[in-house]
Amino acid sequence: MNWDDLYKDPRFCLKNPAEEVVKIVPILQSRGTKRILDLGFGAGRHIIYLAKLGFTMYGTDLSKRGEQITKEWLEQEKLQAKLVMSDMTVIPYPDDFFDACICRGVITHNVVNGIRTCITEMHRTLSPGGVVMCTFISRESSEYRKGEEVEPHTFAPDEGIEAGVPHHFVDEEEARSLMQCFKTIEVYHMKHGGLIDMGTPYVSAHWVFLGEK
Ligand SMILES: C[S@@+](CC[C@H](N)C(=O)[O-])C[C@H]1O[C@@H](n2cnc3c(N)ncnc32)[C@H](O)[C@@H]1O
Predict the structure, then answer these.
(1) Does residue 14 fall inside a structural domain?
(2) CATH number of the domain that 79 lies in?
(3) Residue 40 Cα, ligand 1 centroid: separation in angstroms?
(4) Domain count of the fold of the chain
(5) Which pLDDT tens digit goes with each residue over 74-103?
(6) What is the 3-class SS of the chain, one letter each residue?
(7) Residues with CB under 6 A from ligand 1
(8) pLDDT in tens, 151-209
(9) Whose CA is nearest to atom 8 of ligand 1?
(10) Which of 38, 91, 134, 169 is the most exposed place for a label (fewest CB within 10 A)?
(11) If you measure from the C-alpha of residue 156 to the centroid of ligand 1, how many angstroms do you get, rounded to a whole number?
């Protein structure tokens, strides 16, 4: 899939921050967080939201179009962020560089090996005591088991905007196990009707892992 196609459709260019990102701001502030990596920044909503709050923002993603939308939005808001095109399995920054990392709705789009590599990179680049917030798509999502099964609990949908992209679905035990290199602060489940109008109703469900290095 070319991720640029996603951001040709304004439905996917979300403007308001996700509630799981809003929820961690007091934790970030209480720890004196400065540098935050938004891994898979998309069309920039969390880059803008967190930059406005005074954090120093860095982002990685694969979509040039998402990067362009984010750069224009940053300019309008007179804000700054360092954006880099990079696969989730490579974070092009030194060890212990970030005070926090958020990875929302991104890591799901991979097979387990790729997910493990991404988590190793998040851990490597996070400073000791740094906070990580990572979401995983849940097996309670209505998309679970749709499309081709490419490995256990990983399905590539046959249709829709993300056709052919592997999606790995976790339960709580697997979310905790994948993130075991971090100390756990909180793990919780979010389940609600789909927030984006996709034509047919769907259930969106995620595990949210909040932890520290
Ligand atoms: C559902 S969007 C989430 C965007 C943003 N985190 C948010 O919450 O608004 C998924 C993002 O993951 C990015 N992405 C997908 N696969 C990727 C990969 N292998 N490496 C880096 N980014 C990837 C896509 O380009 C897209 O911007």
Answers:
(1) no
(2) 3.40.50.150
(3) 4
(4) 1
(5) 999 999 999 999 999 999 999 999 999 999
(6) CCHHHHHHCHHHCCCCCCHHHHHHHHHHHHCCCCEEEEECCCCCHHHHHHHHCCCEEEEEECCHHHHHHHHHHHHHHCCCEEEEECCCCCCCCCCCCEEEEEECCCCCCCCHHHHHHHHHHHHHHEEEEEEEEEEEEECCCCCCCCCEEEECCEEECCCCCCCCCCEECECHHHHHHHCCCCEEEEEEEEEEECCCCCCCCCEEEEEEEEEEC
(7) 3, 14, 18, 40-42, 45, 61-63, 66, 87-88, 104-106, 109
(8) 999 999 998 888 999 999 999 999 999 999 999 999 999 998 777 777 777 878 999 99
(9) 104
(10) 169
(11) 16
Domain presence at residue 172: yes
User: Is 190 contained in some domain?
Assistant: yes
User: Does 138 reside within a domain?
Assistant: yes
pLDDT at 5 over 80: yes
**What is this structure's pTM?**
0.96
Q: By residue range, what is the domain housing residue 176?
A: 25-212
